[in-house]
Amino acid sequence: MRSVKIIAAGFIGLTGLLAFLDNLANLGTAHAVVSAVVSAPEQPYYKIWGPTVSSAWLAWVALFTIMAGELAAGVVGFFGAFRLLKSRAEDAAAFHKAKSGAIIAGAIGMFVWYGFFIVIGEMYFNMWQTELGLGSVEGAFRYGTVCAALTLFIALRND
């Protein structure tokens, strides 16, 4: 079971790192998507009740915040997997203590993909109303759910 938990922590790290690298490789497109969401130019059904972001530099801030969270989930996830790998032969208490990095990585992933995309993007900016926004929300739900499920599995005391 310990080996599976180490792999699970690695998957959290890989999810964060690949999301970060994908945005980095497609920086212009990523900025355009974030700009389209936070400026909310067309909302065919529900109108946004608060302020939107029309400034390009604020959209960059939003994108870099997302990317920083993704990178953090990746780095901390790999660090967590490494700590688990180092402690795989130790007693159950030591192995359980080594889980903290992997659990933190999963929590970061949940905050990024549930918090930024579902809570802020979908609920505040009504991303669900556009094809572009809905695709982002669906992906974020998948990634956040993967992080949540893997984190819960890692946290179990069945090792």
Care to describe what's here?
The chain is elongated. The longest helix is centred in the middle third of the chain and has 31 residues, at 56-86. The chain has 159 residues and is mostly helical. It has six helices and no strands. It has one domain.
Q: From the helix content, strand content and strand pairing, which structural class follows? A: mainly alpha
Spell out the helices and strands N to C.
HHHHHH
Report the principal-axis shape.
Answer: elongated
Question: What's the domain count?
Answer: 1
Q: Please tally the helical runs, counting DSSP H or I stretches of 4 or more residues.
A: 6
Work out the number of β strands: 0
Radius of gyration: 18 Å
Distance between the termini: 6 Å
Major sheet: none
Mean pLDDT across all residues, rounded? Answer: 94
Helicity, in percent?
Answer: over 70%
Question: Proportion of β residues?
Answer: under 5%
The unreliable regions are: none
